[in-house]
Design goal:
The chain is built from eleven helices and twelve strands. The protein is an alpha/beta fold and 326 residues long. This is Sugar transferase.
Amino acid sequence: MDAPLPLPTVTPRAPIALFVYNRPEHTRRTVEALAANEGAAASPLFIFSDAPRTPAASPLVEQVRAYVRTVTGFAQVTVVERSTNMGLARSIIEGVSDLTGRFGRAIVLEDDLATAPGFLSFMNDALDAYADDPRVLSVCGYMYPVMFDTPADTLFLRAPHSWGWATWKDRWSLFRSDGAALLQALEARQLLGAFDANGPHDYTRMLKDQIAGRNDSWFIRWYAASLLADRMSLYPVRSLVSNIGIDGSGVHCAEWRFDPYAVQLQGGRLKVEVAEPVESPAAKATLARYYRRVQWLRYVNFAYRKLAPLRRLVGWTDPARQTVRP
């Protein structure tokens, strides 16, 4: 049985939950970027290291664990080494529940997310600003590579995001693990159309796959619960997070030859001003055009991966992965 987390210390900064597995280089880049954040030295960091799923995964898991045991630069570093393989969904669900239960809030990252220097400041400012507004489900650090016509540094969207996010204990209590019950509720309230419209993925299919055991997504259940509760999530207008793991190295992420998610990170600090949590029609329309492009590129990337044996047969050398702008 894994040891319980230590009792919380008094800290003005939200605790950071970092979930790692078997990618030492991605983990190093994630930690180094996070340590370079303004406010990192005042932030407690909890690193949750999942156990290997198979014996073959053990060497890389051990490399990751050897590295994270050396991490410094934070108010405190607590490494939680799981004794059995939990999988990503259970790891995140239990880790976030532990931290929000102890601290009342948490910032959540995975081992393939590079953050801008202003990420922690933005997340903490937003957690403070909306702590007493239950209409705001979460704070998200990633923003798609689009341009918004707005003077504000933030906006609200109906769907949360999983690439660098934060929430509060009372909002996390909305999470439901029963995917079948969530799907039934979405169908009963005729919300499946809205469910699929708020992002570049087929979320209904993703939820059905989770129910059938074909994926292990915690996020799809978090999003479904959010939509059913009519909550909003706060985003920066320019991204503070970059996903460095869309390279085929992760358990849950295939390689994209043409990457529509690549972003240039925000350089300076973004201002968080309290605003009414409503979705901008203009922002929604801008994102809808982007989502259609991503869906088209999904087929292009799928075809590219399927042609891999033919490319190897003819000896074609693939140039570097390309970034595709909307």
